[in-house]
Amino acid sequence: MSTPTKYDFGMIGLGVMGRSLLLNMGDHGVKGAGFDKDVEKVKALEQESTTGNLKGFSDVKEFVDSLNKPRAIMMLVPAGKIVDDVIEELLPLIDKGDLIIDGGNTFYTDTNRRFDYLNSKGIHFFGMGVSGGEEGARRGPSMMPGGDEKAYEVVKPIFEAIAAKVDGEPCVTYCGTGSAGNFVKMVHNGIEYGVMQLLAETYEIMKKGLGMDNEAMGKVFTEWNEGRLKSFLVEVTRDIFRYKAPGTDHLLLDDIKDEARAKGTGKWTSQVAMDLQAPIPTIDTSVSMRDLSKYKELRVKAEGIYGGVQGKLNVDTASFLKSLEEAFYFNLIMSYAQGIHMLSRASVEFNYGLNLAEIAKIWRGGCIIRSLFLQNIYEAFTANPNLEHLLLDGGVANEVKGAVNGARAVVSAVTAAGIAAPCYAESLSYFDAFRSGRMPSNLIQAQRDYFGAHTYELIGKEGTFHTQWTKI
């Protein structure tokens, strides 16, 4: 009687991401088991697997029993209550010393709660952000594990094998203690929101402001992706401007409703940034614009009252496109700088011990926000791991100085023309406020003291003070 094959890694959730990641593991010689209650998804795994290394299960006990001990089980299921339900289903079937990994976009406080809960039962646990979408999961994602470092070391060889590679180095690294991995992924997604909105605004400026057709706009994105703006999101945008649905003679883009959806990670980034007092206005505004896009009916009514945006720019197109490239580069830097500053604040607040150079390094490949500029960030924090803010790095400062005039030219022109480009404007205002040695916030402190006796501090004088601003 033959002994049943045992598997070294288990995956719960065989949707697009879970199945793709498991297939990636199979390609790298990992013997993996997959579980899903949907029998069709189990069949899809086995049909797509060509290595003979993978096996699908629709019975959770059979799945768990098929794994070598100590078991390593990863969940790729929607964030929230489902994760807790899966954990409760697993607990009677697994043993002390086994490892559970949450690979979803989980809110970081949930990861902390689950870590404590499972630790009390002798089960290892860590959260891990996974970026790159279906193609990344299948061919090489960027992964951000955090939490139980000893537990991560057990599965580190598997994740390093399947990760994207840049200069031969895997795009995965232990991020830090507790919920560090999920937190880093959350901020990654916030930066992603910012860059996507910037690209949408760029599209608006070219379409309405310059009157460019789809072919001309596609050519711009193609050229940008061959220069310093080379990045996954610009590449995606380039491809969208090439795609026509079968049997049609126009871009699919023109048929898509202008209402953007979201899964919530951008909103989380904004909410947590407020708690940390880490200003990220480019990202905040990108979240707000997605929300505003959903009010289609209201926007159409408003257009009837106020008139639509005509917004034709009275500029030389070739010259303006040069400024637009500079402006987009400037805004890209601001989006990254705000996100990285948020990570540095969180590292202090939550004792994550984040290595910002390593995070920038693993973002260079596999993930949605991969770009050439991440090399600049990696070099900045490698040279100075204690760098307080990305914009204080000399090399980055040179890039900003070379691009800021383009940002000013674009924001001035589109504002005068009535074209909405809020992330362009917010990025520039953030920069101008950040470089102000003296902000007008002294007036706010005076106002707060006037109506609420909240006190204020004085320049060159210790202590707090209150003034009776008017006669009682």
Helix and strand topology:
Layout (H helix, E strand, L loop, with lengths): L8 E4 L3 H12 L4 E4 L3 H10 L5 E4 L2 H6 L6 E4 L5 H10 L8 E4 L5 H12 L4 E8 L1 H7 L2 E6 L1 H14 L2 E2 L2 E2 L9 H30 L4 H11 L7 H9 L24 H12 L4 H13 L2 H11 L10 H34 L5 H7 L10 H11 L10 H24 L4 H13 L6 H12 L3 E3 L2 E5 L7
Parallel strand pairs: 1-2, 1-4, 2-3, 4-5, 5-6
Antiparallel strand pairs: 6-7, 8-9, 10-11
Molecular structure report:
The protein has 472 residues and is an alpha/beta fold. The protein has three domains: 9-178, NAD(P)-binding Rossmann-like Domain (Rossmann fold); 185-434, Orthogonal Bundle (N-(1-d-carboxylethyl)-l-norvaline Dehydrogenase, domain 2); 440-472, Single alpha-helices involved in coiled-coils or other helix-helix interfaces (Up-down Bundle), CATH 1.20.5.320. The chain is built from 19 helices and eleven strands. The chain has helices spanning 16-27, 39-48, 60-65, 81-90, 108-119, 133-139, 149-162, 180-209, 214-224, 232-240, 265-276, 281-293, 296-306, 317-350, 356-362, 373-383, 394-417, 422-434, 441-452; strands at residues 9-12, 32-35, 54-57, 72-75, 99-102, 124-131, 142-147, 165-166, 169-170, 456-458, 461-465. The protein has a seven-stranded mixed sheet, with helices on both faces. Helix 8 crosses helix 11 and helix 9 runs antiparallel to helix 10. The protein is globular. It starts with 8 loop residues before the first strand and ends in a 7-residue tail after the last strand. The model has no long low-confidence stretch (mean pLDDT 93).
Name some characteristics of this structure.
55% helix; alpha/beta; Rossmann fold; globular; N-(1-d-carboxylethyl)-l-norvaline Dehydrogenase, domain 2; Single alpha-helices involved in coiled-coils or other helix-helix interfaces
